[in-house]
Design a protein that fits this description.
By secondary structure, the chain is of the alpha/beta class. It has helices spanning 16-30, 77-87, 102-109, 127-140, 151-160, 207-218, 235-245, 261-267, 283-290, 301-304, 321-333, 335-349, 354-388, and strands at 2-6, 34-39, 52-54, 59-63, 66-70, 91-95, 114-119, 145-148, 165-167, 193-198, 224-229, 250-254, 270-273, 295-298, 313-316.
Amino acid sequence: MKVAMVSPYDYRRPGGVGEHVRHLSSELRSRGLAVTVIAPYAGSRQDPVPDLIALGRPIPVPANGSVARISLSFHLSRRIREVLEKERFDVVHIHEPLMPALPVNVLRLNRTAATVGTFHAYARQNLGYYYGRPILRRQFRRLDECIAVSEPARAFVSRYFPAEYTVIPNGIDPTFYRPQTPPAEGITHPRRRTILFLGRLEERKGLSTLLDAYQLLRQVRADCQLVVVGDGALRRGYERRVEEEGIPDVRFMGFIPEEAKPGYFTAADIYCAPNTGKESFGVILLEAMASGTPVVATAIDGFRQVLTDGREGILVPPGNDGAMASALSFLLDHPEKRQEMGRAGTASAQGYAWPLVADRVYRVYTRALAKHSQEEVSSVVQQTATEIR
């Protein structure tokens, strides 16, 4: 089976959809499928990426409380046609298939392959979907099968484009994220437990709420530290706040490569995800859980999909620094509960292993191929009947 895996985002930069595409492609290749990724790419043409067809130069665009690096070039049609005609894919799997400009144009121009769309996003509303629905509906109908990565993602997209969606979650690699990973050096402290934040430093990730909660903690105890891993536009402001307000024992580690992440989870006593919303799925929670680290997270829809309150961690209301401080304090005071939640998290995360996810995606491919073949036969029959008449 020859598969095109289409992503709207810069393939050079880490991100949820990009990592999903990488891991799913790798897992499908291990089963003998020929998978080619098609995505915008900001890297050098002199340093090509294996199995990648780069289409479009990405630019940063504000979207959903974050910054999406996508191609907005509307001059890709000729190149897309050339690629599709040359490669003759069996399945074209488009992630966020209605996004400009690469995904929706691949969807529009594909004429021969079965088409699968995966919807990742979650938000309260999408003005592009709302106002563009009359035009986008025509392209949406070209999808043979639809996947959503979670129930919130399914509910969100189906408001605008009702259809039958198969919910298949994001995956993780439990052999990469595991409790046995050696802790990252220079993180642990002999007299303080480590609270870890790991994510992009942007408003919707909620670090400001965690800093408020941590300040409350440090008013009554000195046995903890906060380690902040990640970078972003708000980093300088957060560092200035910590300095000006004299918040003790907060360490900003900056950006770390993907391969370093497991060691930070195993170095932490608690992982905290204070996100404010707009998360369709809690991949970062699964990574911490697989590493055996108990979690304190906000009770947003995407996080409730993967974490059960009181089992793998504790869920608190978004933006509630008092409730977050209480949850963190409880786990700091109860090491046996941290261990119990860590073990439960590791067990739960096994259900999201990439081989299991790939099995379900492959079954969708076979359904899409069967449906597409039936449609082709029906089209031929109709055309023949018309010619006879």
